[in-house]
Amino acid sequence: MVLGHEAVGIVEEVGSLVKNIKVGDKVIVPAITPDWDDEAAQRGYPSQTTEPLGGWKFSNFKDGAFGERFHVNLADANLALMPEGLTDEAAVMLVDMWSTGMMGSENANIPLGGSVLVIGIGAVGLSAIAGAALLGAADIYAAGTRPVSVKVAKEYGATEIINYREAPIDEQVREATNGAGVDSVILL
User: Fold this and answer.
1) What are the boundaries of each domain within the chain?
2) Which residues form the Alcohol dehydrogenase-like C-terminal domain (predicted)?
3) Phi–psi pair at 151, nearest 5 degrees
4) S-S: 79 plus which of 27, 70, 87, 102, CB 3.0-4.6 Å?
5) In contact, 157 and 140? CB cutoff 8 Å
């Protein structure tokens, strides 16, 4: 099986049911390509269509994006036209890191003006921090230690950095919140 589960590419061929995507279009291919008519997708769980993790097809059920060519199911619903001026590098961050982090923030049900702890400040964690800020979190605690990630976490909206090397994360959060804890936790 060929690996790879997110990509940017140029469409070489379309099936007869594809109406909005054309040969030659530059597209963004997400990591998750659900069956949108499935009941799980209709309930808001597109990554779980047809079975657990069934929306994650590349390198799981069929050859992935590292192949010379690969098939995208439901192309009209699962591909996005690449906006003018967006670099390939920026686009590929959208299809997995940003979307995973943002979905983590959405699934955390952070109340408006609430607090959240994001554990892990790699690319997905940083995306979750940005997502939490966009969703209106007032207090965003970010657990991590890499200096460059700490800098970006603050730029994206982290209000406090938790250095897990100094003491257990939960103890630091309780101390920072005067024992209240946080409304939500995102573990990445």
Assistant:
1) 7-86, 103-187
2) 123-186
3) -60, -45
4) 27
5) yes
